[in-house]
Amino acid sequence: MSTDPKGHNPTALDRWLLVRYKKYPNAQQIPNNVSSIMMRRVHDKARIHVAIIIMALSGIGMFTNAMIGKYQAKQGYSIEKAVADYQQEYNKRKEQELSQQKK
């Protein structure tokens, strides 16, 4: 975003951010032109908050996946076993299809 001396025409999202970060009490009081510096600062704060939220959600997701993996390991599930089971079923289906085609 440039520092235009004329200001910045806020969009609906910009207006929401300006109210959310308490630069204005409500959307009706926001003027048609807002300082570019103020908009840049508000956008920077919003980016930081979004990044923090994404990092927290990623951490929760990683922890959850680790716990699910530990639970499945205790239950005896493994990827190698699942692949071997799938391969056996696949080979049985192929043999049945070949035997049906020969008839």
| Overall residue-averaged pLDDT value | 91
Number of helices: 3
Q: Biggest sheet, in brief?
A: none
- Overall geometry comes to elongated
Name the beta content range. Answer: under 5%
Helix content: over 70%
**Rounded Rg:** 29 Å
**SS-based class:** mainly alpha
- What series of H and E elements makes up the topology? HHH
How many strands appear in the DSSP assignment? Answer: 0
Kindly report how far apart the N and C termini lie.
73 Å
* Uncertain segments: none
What does this structure look like?
The chain is 71% helix and 0% strand. The protein is mainly α and 103 residues long. It has a domain at 12-76. It starts with 11 loop residues before the first helix and ends with a helix. 4% of the residues are buried. The mean pLDDT is 91.
Please describe the topology of this protein.
Elements: H1 12-20, H2 36-75, H3 79-102
Notable traits:
3 helices, elongated, 103 residues, 71% helix
In short:
This protein is mainly alpha-helical and 103 residues long.
